[in-house]
Each structure stands twice: as C-alpha cells, then as structure tokens.
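pasting for ref
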Amino acid sequence: MVISDAALQALDNGLGDYSGSYITISRTGGINLHDLFSVGTIAGGITRVGNNLFDSNNDLIATLDKTTNHGQLKITFSDTAGDAVTQTMVNNIVNAITYSTTDTTIANGSLLGLTYSFNDGVSGVGSVTTTANVTVNYSAPTATVTSAAATYTEGGTAATVAINAVISDAALQALNHGSGL
C-alpha cells in the first residue's frame, strides 16, 4: 500500500511532511473485538518501543492507539523533534501493519475485508478510504517429541523422559510481535 498526499508531499523540499496525519484500520463493516492489529518489523531504521515509533535518530514520529477502539488500529504521525515525517517513513510503517483474529466464526479460507482510512490532518479537507482483503487461514497446533529409552530405578535420580519436546501454534506465535504469548 502506498500513502500519498500531493499537498503534504510538497513539504520539506519534496520529501513530504505527514506530521498531524493519521491512518485507521479496522474490519470492513465495523470494529470487531476479536481483531488484533499491530506493527511488525519496519524498514528504514524505524523502531518500536511500546506504542511509540521512532526514526533512526530516536525521534518520536508516530504513536499507535489500539485501546481506544479495541479491534481498530490508529497510527498518528507527529514531528515532536521538529523533523518531518516523510512519505517514505509513513509507507514503511503502513506496510509493516500486521493483522490476526481470534474470531473462530469465520470459515477457513474466507476473504475478510480490512478498511484503511487516511486523513491528512488538515481541517475540512477530509480523508480517503480503501479496502484490502485478507484470507483467513487456521492452523492446528503441532507437537514434536523425540525421546530415547529411559530407565528409572526406585529411589534413584529422576530419568529424562522427553529429550526434546517442541509444541507450536502458528496463531499464538504471531502474537506479541512474533514472540508468542
């Protein structure tokens, strides 16, 4: 997805200054409390600490709001240090948005619409909205256990039963920025 605003793009010698603009993302048809939006790894040296995004100079350039309306993500771009928030920064952030849902009522393989609304932050100018579709895929958890023969003698030391056990769930692993629960 590419965010572009001619008036904002003309600022800062053509690099753009999107400070004051914001984007909201939610499920098409209304906010669903089962929907989880976040921001993953961002290109261009932008880092995330909590709900704040920082440029490569560690200047705050955006804040994430996932709590005002659960099931919706709002990203507000700002120039707290006086530096411009460029179009490249905005697009790097927007393209790092992640989505997952805990809604099990959606049929596996269904298309689900997500609505993106961008507002340039200029009073009276308005906003633009577009929809993207995602395919819902459920995956069952897996367990892999490899073990060797174990011998235990009464009164002896404990015997290792499972030398290597790995339990994984792709849906849970996606939470907490890919670190799982």
